[in-house]
Design a protein that fits this description.
The protein is an alpha+beta fold. The chain has helices at 8-11, 19-25, 102-113, and strands at 3-4, 30-34, 37-49, 53-59, 67-73, 76-87, 93-100. The strands form 2 sheets. Strands 1-7-6-3-2 form a 5-stranded antiparallel β-sheet, with helices on one face. Strands 4-5 form a two-stranded antiparallel ribbon. A hairpin with a 2-residue loop joins β2 and β3. The chain is rod-shaped, with a radius of gyration of 22 Å.
Length: 115
């Protein structure tokens, strides 16, 4: 999992009203009051395949003659994302960050660009 700055579509919300973001993302998984404002958190996860792993196995299907057969597998891995929105007492976005890969965050960040 990668951690980084918010993607541009998230970072562009700083200074804007928080209510439209809350409406697009839906109810947060958690929220807390902080210094007259609030911090909201949304979490999501996606199942994704890892890089392919190729191994070999020996097959005797050809009548007793050993044949080396390559086998490629993809192990599923779960990627996680957390979006953290901080608004001040006036409801303006003061911070909006993501913790996770862009792929894991897509189910949340895609909601921000929907009409």
């Amino acid at each position: 999992m990668t951690t980084g700055n918010a993607p541009p579509d998230v970072g562009n919300f700083k200074g804007q009203a928080g209510q439209p973001i809350l409406a697009k993302l839906g109810p947060p998984d958690s929220q807390a009051s902080v210094g007259g404002g609030a911090v909201y958190r949304w979490r999501t996860s996606v199942l994704q395949n890892s890089a392919p792993t190729t191994t070999t196995t020996v097959s005797y299907a050809s009548g007793g003659v050993p044949t080396v057969v390559p086998v490629t597998t993809f192990e599923p891995q779960t990627a996680y994302c957390t979006l953290i929105l901080t608004v001040d007492g006036a409801g303006r976005v003061t911070d909006f960050v993501r913790d996770g890969s862009r792929q894991a965050c897509a189910p949340l960040t895609d909601k921000l660009t929907s009409p």
